[in-house]
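Q: I have 456 residues here and want to know how they pack in 3D. Can you give me a structure?
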Amino acid sequence: MDVIVSASSLSGTVRAPASKSIAQRLLILSAIANAPTFLAMEHTSADIDATVRCLRTLGARIQPMERRSPAGPACRGLRVTPLPHDPSGRPVALSDVNLDCGESGATLRFLVPVACALPTRARFTGEGRLPERPLAPLARELLRHGATIERKSARELPIVVEGPLTGGRYTIDGNVSSQFISGLLLASPLLEGGLDLHVLDPFESKPYVSLTAEALERFGVHVLSDRLDGGNGDAQAIGGAHFEHATRFIVEARQRLLSPGDIDVEGDWSQAAFWLAAGAIGAQVRVSHLNLSSVQGDRAILAALALMGVRVSREGGVCEAQGKGLRGATFDLSDMPDLVCPLACVAALAEGKTRFFGARRLRLKESDRLESVRAALSAIGGKATLLGDELEIEGVDELSGGVVDAAKDHRVAMMAAICALRARGPVTILGAECVSKSYPTFFEVLRALGGRVEEA
């Protein structure tokens, strides 16, 4: 689907969609917990649906339903009936299953260690760039702990895995993918002997690991963490390699996952960031259903916009951004890589230059996102340059409009649509259906706010 977005004045209130990152973690824990769990969320997305599809294939029952409450309005969501349990209380999954992860890196990287720990024999497949995204560091650790893995090469799917997986000490580099760390933590309650996980510095995207630890806590599993600092005499040899700095996560053995019953999946700051960026460049948009104390790393959008001269207001769970006199800034994306696209919208129209660094992993997303952002802004009259793995954007007074190839990247498509609000001519977005990966209703919401959107 190609869409044409033209300049317009947006106004109104948007309810932030349920956090994709949180929903995927909670779904997995619900599927291996002791009792059913209801997850309140108005809508899902392709990535959430991929996790649901895989968990159903493993034997969990997941049903859309509406929960009515005498104390408030009804809410929609998903009811998860977990896998059956054996007499010892361990969940039992179906075996010899095919798990289709779609394009969801989180679904693949979370469920590979979980499948090994259940244990089951599972064949994982995927689409788009998913087969190209790194998995080898996680696979190596799983092999060291008893898993069997069959794969034609380190850059191919399908991958076939089988347990049982043992507990004990695991070591992962912290600058490849935080999803490796989260996957091991999600599997930890299933491991005999618990988990002693060492994450070697540099440790990037730490907030995503915090989301996983928080999800486990909601199900009664405690995650302990501390620092190993060679400067204080704590240097150790792990896996034959000497290191001086690491973060250690410990999940003690024999902790059971206990369903909390009902969970309201909080709003997604990474999606809310696009509407706040729209406010920064002139829209009158308020975003509701946001947790102002969330551990989501993308809550940093508020501080980032303030650094660019945007006035940000907060009231309860509602936020609004208003920009005047925008200015460029410098951002380290190591812990907030998904904010590059909404911040690029603002940077394209800010005075001076904005520099993004710590962005190397963006080349391994649904597209080479650094190049996709550069190409998209250049196509509509922006000034963007890549300097190795750093992105530099020089602001202009007005964008011209033009044709943007979304490169099958949901965040690039949404970025182009927000930029179009301040363009002289229309912006045609090729392959705009890719927003379904994380925000299927994005263009519907844009229209409801007053946006001019038509199919090409």
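Q: Anything worth noting?
A: The chain has twelve helices and 26 strands. The longest helix spans residues 46-58.
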